[in-house]
Amino acid sequence: MSKSLLPKNIAELKAYSSAKSEKLTGTTWLNANESPYAKEFKLSISNLNRYPEPQPEKVTNAYSNYSQLNAEQVLMTRGADEGIELLMRTYCESGKDSIAIFTPTYGMYKVSADTQNIAINELSQNLLLNADVSEICESIAGAKLVFICNPNNPTGSLTPVSKIAALAKSLSGRALIIVDEAYIEFCPEQSAVPLLQDFENIAVLRTLSKAFALAGLRTGFLLANTNLLAPVRKVIAPYPVSTAVALIAEQALSTDSVTQMRRQVSILNRNKDSLKTVLSNSPKVTQILSGEGNFITLQLSDKCFIETAMQQGTIMRPFSLYGEDNWLRISIGSEQELEQVRLWLEQPE
Length: 349
Fold this sequence. Notes:
Layout (H helix, E strand, L loop, with lengths): L7 H4 L16 E3 L26 H11 L6 E4 L1 H13 L6 E6 L4 H8 L3 E6 H6 L2 H8 L4 E5 L11 H10 L5 E5 L21 E6 L12 E4 L2 H10 L7 H10 L2 H26 L4 E5 L5 E6 L3 H9 L1 E8 L2 E8 L3 H12 L3
Parallel strand pairs: 1-11, 3-4, 3-5, 5-6, 6-7
Antiparallel strand pairs: 2-8, 7-8, 9-10, 10-12, 11-12
């Protein structure tokens, strides 16, 4: 009976398969692009009987300082995923409108669109990176939202900020450009945030899950100009952020914590360079995608090597890319964790 009540788009929905959705066992976790750095926070809460602030002022002020924006340009969300959902719910009409994505890319854009019965214009990363702006805009056609993951997950590729600006200019009045900057702390000079001073049709998604080492907190931010954010504020839940989450996020955005985050990012970027060298010298690896972010995506000569890694206790993220199923994404962990990758690569074939 319950199945007969389901809308067709939900009945046929293919759920997003997260890195943690499979019940895997292991000792070294390099499959979810998490930070290897854990930090303790102070919590003294005596007012949980009261609802929290809808938008915690201390947090939004801290993030506006960090991102060099006005507080009115910052909306705190439950991870960047809620920002994706909110933009579609606010700006797209179910059964009528469409979004554009450039694959391979982050899978939640498609899941959120499918959930809300929003059509998907699936274009390629190759088009985004190599075609001129007029060709891209023609291919985007009537899509209302254009999602650009930058750096892109899982390829690590970067769309130049100048190209994002040109797309926003060409699509003004037609579409919003949504730049997902989940990994931008690993290449901060590539951020599209400065474009907000010139464009009303750009929104930027951010998260504390990656460089800030707070994947378990589920905290993100939607950055945009006030006119773009105003209708989103009507759609967001009345109390989206818990008191405890707000207290931790406030501490994570303190001056000292931001300095610590940047120091950790420098270490992880160095670890990534070292891992690239190891991978490039391994006969098990046939191709490495050069890109930004706290991960490396590579192609193996044989996907059976993934099983040997799992038997060793090293958990990485298998992928099917470009029609082949022998791809692997390795999150950048600590030196000790990446040593397990080196040991795996040196095992006899």
